[in-house]
Amino acid sequence: MISWSRDCSWKNSQSVDLKDYKSGSFNNQFGYRSFHPEILNREWVASLPELITLLETANIRLGELNAFSIIVPDVDTFLKMHLVKEATRSSRIEGTRTTMDEAVLDARDIDPEKKDDWQEVQNYIEAMNYSIARLEKLPLSCRLIREAHSILLKSVRGKNKTPGEFRTSQNWIGGATLKDARFIPPHHSLVPGLMGDLEKFINNTDIHVPHLIRIGMAHYQFEAIHPFLDGNGRIGRLLITLYLVSQKVLNKPTLYISDFIEKNRIYYYDNLAAVSEGHKMVQWLKFFLVGITETANQAIDTFNKILLLRDKTENKTIITLGKRIPNAKSLLTYLYRKPVVTVADVMNELKVTKQTANTLISDFENLQILKEQTGFKRNRIFIFEEYFNLFEQ
Questions:
Q1: Under a CB-based contact definition with an 8 Å cutoff, are residues 258 and 268 in contact?
Q2: Model confidence over 296-328: pLDDT tens digits?
Q3: Which domains does the chain have, with CATH numbers?
């Protein structure tokens, strides 16, 4: 017999096979039915061979990906673009239209009509960087999630939807009103208890649940609770990377799943809905593990291509520049973090004159490292296209 204690935790930790998982129930409210998820903080057992096989494959790929964090001494230089890709993809799922080449530009170089979307992407990047740093002092907790949410909605379209606070009113997904909504999350009075249970499940060292199973289930549960009035999708996806880093599955934030989710958006939403409506957690976890595997494979491939490109560019291409090699190496390092630049960017980063910056950029154009994008004579923008395209593939 399982029951609640006053602190919203299970009174016993009897393990349950995932094939017997029950997601919750739909409860009548005033004029609508909301979904009430079951509690998650307990020991779950994966016994189905196909699920175990997918889990094993995903773990192997994550281990291979994590090796880059160990063997590449300056891996942080390349992580900036991985995060930019995640931020643009995750935000695009929610309707923004900022592209990756726009996302790496400074505010002064963005079309005013595109500034709002651009700022949402920048907020995502800031929220991730802030959260990764905070993990050194805080566990992955409701507090940290709320802090990330506060950054995510800062000075953008959701700024009036209580950034950093769990909702105190009913929300819904799809439809114009509660009456025609596709899905209605739990009543707001249940949110604190459900989120407390989710926090305990994420951090509970007394239960034995494989990391990828645990965060896969936690991601579903977070989306089912939908604890905020806005930004739930982005925070839910951010949660995946934060968990893997917090549990030392990854030494660095090298895996971001939003690109896979965007490409398979219909299946993503269908699988989440199937959990709530039909208790199909195993099917959701299969989809999730395939996503982890494919994302890790893509990241591994990208890192390998980055290392080959760096070797070619640094050891075979810029050596022709003679005495300008030191500045050229500094510019290359900058381009790995920001592959779309202006003359002003190069001046500020390298602390050089306008003439020196223009000469360096001209050298890089002649060596086919940089390519001018605008076709203008003024306000020109240059792209390290071969490197940039590794993230757009």
A1: no
A2: 999 999 999 999 999 999 999 999 999 999 999
A3: 38-301 (1.10.3290.10), 317-392 (1.10.10.10)
